[in-house]
Each structure stands twice: as structure tokens, then as C-alpha cells.
Amino acid sequence: MAKAKSDTTVVVGLSGGVDSSVTAYLLQQEGYKVIGLFMRNWVDESVTIHDECPWVEDSNDAMLVADKLGIPFQVIDMSAPYQERIVDYMFGEYERGRTPNPDVLCNREIKFDLFLKTALSLGADYVATGHYARKSSVEVDGQTVYQLLGGKDPNKDQSYFLCQLSQDQLSKALFPIGELLKSEVREIAREAGLATAEKKDSQGLCFIGKVRLPDFLQQKLEPKDGNVWEVPREAAFLQEPRHTLEEQAKPFDFHPKHAEKRGKHRGAHYYTVGQRKGLNIGGSPLPLFVLGVNTQYNAIYVGQGDDHPGLYRKALFITAAEEHWVRPDRSMQPRETAQYSARIRYRQSLVPVTLHKVEEGLYMEFETPEKAITPGQFAAWYDGEELIGSGIIAE
User: Fold this and answer.
1) Residue 184: in which H helix or E strand, if any?
2) CATH topology of domain 5-218
3) Pairing of strands 260-265, 226-230
4) Which one of 51, 212, 341, 354 is at 20 to 30 Å from 203 when CA atoms are compared?
5) 66 with 60: CB under 8 angstroms?
6) Any idea what DSSP says for residue 17?
């Protein structure tokens, strides 16, 4: 028999923003016992700008909201595991010329793992966050299977950031604002008199707030001068047909022999595929985009125009070790194929894809060539509104 809401404890990850504030308020209004916890994830001032790190301000805002609602509140320090699980991993990926997504990892490793375990140790039945996503359930072979659905606000759907959650994690998760538009969330905060009602959304990294990623990386990864090479769009190797899925999923083999030296950069590990800003190279009829990053040789390859053929590929590959099914009952067996919609970055529109399962992993084939497929990022696939699975793009 399910517990009554009045006997059900929910720990809310109060971040000091309006979304988590309204999450706590709505749960309280529904009759749950609510506890607010603020996670302090980052304390290493050697690689951040202290005046620009707003965690103290955010924790104070979270405390004001908890005080207004009359709920217990506590700050918990997760900086040590965060350093190990998120930050060290992130720097390692950039050093390899890959582009990680710390927000996805934060949800998998911190909010719905360590934070969830902390909440359960306090006697909580659920944890809740201010994500614009929804949870539902279906019955499969007599078992309850949880579904991760996109948020109702098309401009704020954050299901992609939750694409690595497991069934166990989903079973204990609540997303109270998933049915709301952002404008409705702010209006609720105003009517409830919450201190965060007009607070702007954070635009920085998930753990260092206002600090820009390039500035952050340069304080940890040493500058290393190298060459920028421009690849002409008519290069012969870009015109060669790619017949098999394996060929289509391989990144182009950019090499100085195909290119012209265009300038210098301060370190290949600072750049990512598809990047336009920050190259500081003029004199081209069309804007330059990063086509490839080679940290082994410290080389950046660029091309003119966002329709440059070197920016596009027809497929990507996810290794079996990085393949994740939010819905394990929908996982595929070798030689099976399935039709889904997918995105390879946050805010990207869903596009039709075919998944091809092989022993070594999973190929994602796009209906039309996809722009800026970026190693280290997450590809997530959906059936309608439901996020079915995800994986890290291999190369």
C-alpha cells in the first residue's frame, strides 16, 4: 500500500534558482514532507575566479526559500567526489580532444547517485529536482517500468540532461515542474513570494557558475601553440563515397597534406568540433568552423561555411560499454535495427535516425547527414516524447 503524501518525505535539491524553489513549493502544497538540501560541489579556487563563483550567493538564496516555506535546510559538501567523478573526467576528455557534457554526468553521478543516497539515508522516499522533464510508468510483463518524458515547455525540455538515468534512479525521482512552462514557474514563484522569483537562470558550467569554459580550461590545461589548417571544401577525400555504416561513422582523416596553414592557436584541447567563435582568424569570405581537433599533433582543422562537407557525417558510433538504455526492456540485440528520433546536443531538434545494433556497440544512422558530430557528447534517442536510451559518441 502506497504511503500517504503526508507521510512521504521528499528531499529537494535546492540550487538557489527559481526552478528548484518552485519545485519545493509545489511539493509542499501537495502535502509532502519536504527537506531542502544545497549541494556544494566546487571549492577549488586554484582553477576558478573566486569573485565570479556564486555558490555562497546561491546557497543563501536557497536558505531564504527554505525559510519562507518553513522547511528544514542543510548545505552538504560533495566537492571531493565531484572533483573525482566530474571535473577530473572533464579535463581528461578535453586533453584527448573530446568534448564532455558535465551536466549529464552531474545528474548521473552526483544528483541521482550520491545526492540520492544521502537523501535516502535521511529517511527520504524520493528526491526532486527542478528539471523540465516528466516521469510516467507502464507495466511490462507484470513489472512497473518507469518512463522519462520530455518537459511540456518546448524551449526548456531538459530530458536530454537526464539521459543516463537508470530505472532505479527514476523510481526515486520527482520532477514537479515538468508539466509547466517557464513563464508559469516564475508566476508561481511571484505569487508565493519566493526570493528567487526574478533571479536569472545560470548560464555557466553546472559547478562553477559564471566562469566561462575557455577561461576555466586555460587555468588547468597548459597553453600549447599549434597550427590552424584550413581544409578546402573541394578536397578529394571529402568527395569519396562512404558505403558502409562503419565508414560513414568514422570522422574524416584531416591531415596537413590536405590543408593550408591559416594561423596559430593556443592549444588544440581548447577547441571543439563545430566551434565558430574564438578562432580569431580573419580574411575569409565565409565564417570558419572547426572541422576536427587533433590533440596528439596539437592541430586544428577548419573550413569555410556551415555547409562545409567536412562538418557533416551520415552516422556515429557508440561502443557497447557506453550504450545505456533508460528502458532496458527496449534494448536491442546484434543485427536488430530500430527507428527512433534523436538529438546529439541539448536544444537540438529531434531528427529521424535508424539504430543498428552490432556486437561492438551501436550505430546511429541519420536520415540526412548530421552537422558537427562531436566525440564525447551524448546522443539520446526518443520514441515520441519518451527518452529510450543514450550513449557517448565514440569519435
Assistant:
1) helix 182-192
2) Rossmann fold (3.40.50)
3) antiparallel
4) 341
5) no
6) S
How high is the pLDDT of residue 64?
Answer: 93
Q: How far apart are CA 140 and CA 137, in angstroms?
A: 10
Catalytic residue (one of 26, 78, 206, 208): 206
Q: Which of 86, 106, 288, 394 is catalytic?
A: 106
Query: Does residue 106 have an active-site annotation?
Result: yes
Residue (of 222, 325, 272) closest to 93 by Cα position? 272
Rounded distance, CA 337 to CA 206, Å? Answer: 35
CA 194 to centroid of chain Cα atoms: 28
> CA-CA distance, 63 to 74, in Å (whole number)?
8
DSSP secondary structure letter of residue 34: E
List average pLDDT for each run of 10 residues in the chain, which is 395 residues long.
85 94 97 94 57 70 93 91 86 88 92 94 95 97 97 95 98 98 97 93 57 66 91 93 96 93 92 90 92 94 96 98 98 98 95 98 97 96 98 96
Q: Active-site residue 53, yes or no? A: no
Under the phi-then-psi rule, with left for phi > 0, alpha for psi from -120 to 50, and beta for the rest, what region is 203?
alpha
Domain ranges of the chain: 5-218, 226-306, 312-392
Fold classification of 312-392 is Elongation Factor Tu (Ef-tu); domain 3 (2.40.30)
What is the DSSP secondary structure assignment for residue 321, as one 8-state letter?
G
| Measured distance CA(40)–CA(29) in Å, rounded | 27
Q: What is the pLDDT of residue 6?
A: 84
C-alpha cell at 91: 579535463
pLDDT of residue 84: 87
